[in-house]
Amino acid sequence: MGTAASLGVRVPERYSRVCYLTRGGRVAWIVRLVQIGADGDEPFADVMTINRPDGLDDIANLGLTVADGKQVLAGLQQEIVAAQTRSHSVQRPECRSCSGVCHLKDYRNHAVATHLGQVTVRLPRFRCTGCGAIEAGVGWPSHCRSTPEFDQLQAHFSALMPYRVAADVLKQVFPIDAGKDPETVRRHTLKIGATLRIDAVARPEMAAAAVAVTLDSTFIRSCEDGERHLEVRVGNVETETGGRQVFGAVAKTDTDVKVLIRQSLDAVGRTEDTVLTAFTDGCSGLRRILADAGISELPILDWFHIGMRLQHLKQTAGGLSADDPARVAAKAVIVEEVERLHWRLWNGKAKDAQISIDRIRAVMHHFQGEQGERKSIAPSRKLWTALHALDGYLTGQSDWMVNYAERHRAGLRVGTAITEGTANFLVNRRMNKSQQMRWSRRGANLLLQVRCAVYNGTLGSGYGQKFHPANDTHPHPQAIAA
Ligand SMILES: [Zn+2]
Q1: Which tens digits make up the pLDDT trace of 131-150?
Q2: What's the whole-model pTM score?
Q3: How far is the CA of 441 from the centre of ligand 1 (A)?
Q4: Which of 183, 217, 344, 464 is the most exposed place for a label (fewest CB within 10 A)?
Q5: How many angstroms separate the alpha carbon of residue 101 from the centre of ligand 1?
């Protein structure tokens, strides 16, 4: 290790430059980086001179500006990389072919993007004096153009906001000269997404006695030829003690949702003795996935989905006209029957649901000619549609409905309501139609892997801070049931 002078760093002319008053009440500081070496030598480099007004009469002058901060960090990064490069190039590797002695051949410059700006690393190449083989000083893959941490940072930002916004935020906050291009941010994010397919999951020490698994599907707009939408499967596993993992995959990609389910179960401590309960709303495809993932019990229709439909039905019934005695009577019948329907479904009597539906239909003719307010559809028309939809839903789903009341009394889950929030958080907030975004199958799937990792707190070591989606309110089943 050389001294400051031999390392070619700029030595200040006078030590007193470190703090001196200039004209106009401005003060200059020098940021000096001192390398503490094992041999007691302490070479240093002056990173930058900061020039700030002296007084505090304007709060805008307090401390460093954003630009100052970026410049300091970028300068420190440059100097530290330069020092690392210098100590590295002193080391001589041993030839891998003949274990001969290597001599310096030449240097190659590698531009590497970091979150503190682009750095150029001057890396030596060596030639073996014995066999003439070329040895590189470091084993970086030749395509390494950015630090893993910077890739992760870009992925984390991109998981939460559109690539364009993520690129702009990064540019605002960090001294980044590379990566401010949204396409670069996207590429780095997808690269991280592709590396997130873990083979083995760290199992927690505590075994989970019971785990609820939910699986649902939603759609996003596609930019692929001949396809308008891509199907996205999302879900979560949850233990009684609050352990939770979310997962998601775009259909027809090489991410297998069955594998994700198994991994998620392992991650929350599933054992052979764990009682698994599955919830799903829906199609036979999702039920098959659950069965293939090793969940042998029939999935239960999530009460959340039924509750939502009942709530809608109640609201519409409450909005029916009551402008003549016949309608008042008919409305009372309907409101009561909707309550009874609710009770029947909640108590596992889905087969009797038809009785309520028929009773409602029988009095609906009283609302013929009912007018909607200001061009809106008449309430009776809405009720008819909602009733028809519920009827169709129950016809397809009644085999998977259970006695929710009994489960609830026994302290068992009747649904999760989480999938809806999870779907919103994982898919809709970032990928939905309102943003007019169109997705490629691969791009959507890899971004989804990043979003799940952010949610699960497994993205990288430094950034995997767990957070809760704001719309995930965990409504108490009773709130929907009541
Ligand atoms: Zn050799």
Answers
A1: 988 887 776 766 778 888 88
A2: 0.74
A3: 48
A4: 183
A5: 7
